[in-house]
Amino acid sequence: MSQRQRRAVSSPSLRSSGGVKLRRVTTSSAIYDQLHAAIVSLQMKPGMALQEKRISEEFGVSRTPVREALLRLAEAGLVEIFPQSGTFVSRIPVAAIPEAVVIRKSLEGTTVKHAAEVASAGDIARLDAIIARQRVHAGLNETSLFHEQDEAFHESISAIAGYPGVWTILRTVKLQIDRARRLTLPVLGRMNSVIEEHMTIRDAIAAHDRERAHAAMMHHLSAVIPDIDELRLLYPGYFS
Asked: Where do the HTH gntR-type domain residues begin and end (predicted)?
């Protein structure tokens, strides 16, 4: 029996592994959404074994919609399916991250410039409210809620610029970045650093300074690369 097979046999149930709670659902899309969220948030750790039978029992469905959901997750690069060994949460592919950062810089660099041109007082108030919520979550060490507001901040900039579709594209592009960044938030002071970077971006937008807004966004998005190098040493089993 291979090492992967032994892990699959000995793997605990999804409900007991990492505290993952799964709602009973009836469609493969809903199963996909829940598993997708659990993987990206690291509730399901890289390398974790997934068993169709166990997942179907947790969701209260047959294996067919579970299999369909797993195939979609494999296409998204979030799980790996080995016919003779089983299905596993994929490790974070380090090689894919630099390209994702380049794409994100290109698109968000454009949106933040446009946002700086057109932002209204109401738009700035929206960003202020998001940053205020981030401060609260950072103070309470609520990393998941903090990450949600981080997403909201960047999504709002795309909306302010008039390009909400850019964020839809980026949500797919940055999946592996998001998984890695979840590991950085518990690091002491990291959430406060993110808030400071967001404030610099916010101030540049409020001043309608396109170039300063662009530079601040580039600095903010570049932080993930050195983080990855350090994270690989701290969590070697999570990366490929």
From this structure: 25-92
Q: How far apart are CA 49 and CA 41, in angstroms?
A: 16
Kindly report the number of other CB atoms within 10 A of residue 171's CB atom. 14
Q: How far, in whole angstroms, is CA 218 from its chain's centroid?
A: 19
Q: Is the dihedral of CA 48, 34, 151, 190 positive or negative?
A: negative
Query: pTM of the full predicted structure?
Result: 0.81
Tokens in use for 115? Answer: 């946002």
DSSP 2: -
**Sign of the CA dihedral with 55 first, then 41, 90, and 237 last:** negative
Pure H helices in 89-209: 97-118, 121-139, 143-161, 164-173, 175-184, 190-206
The two tokens of residue 164 are 């909400």
What lies within 8 Å, CB to CB, of 87 at 6+ separation is: 49, 50, 51, 52, 70, 74, 79, 80, 81
- Give the single-character DSSP code of 209: -
Cβ-contact 178, 96 below 8 angstroms: no
- Reported as a single tens digit per residue, the pLDDT across 140-196 is 999 989 999 999 999 999 999 999 999 999 999 999 988 988 888 777 678 999 999
Tell me the Cα Rg of the chain: 19
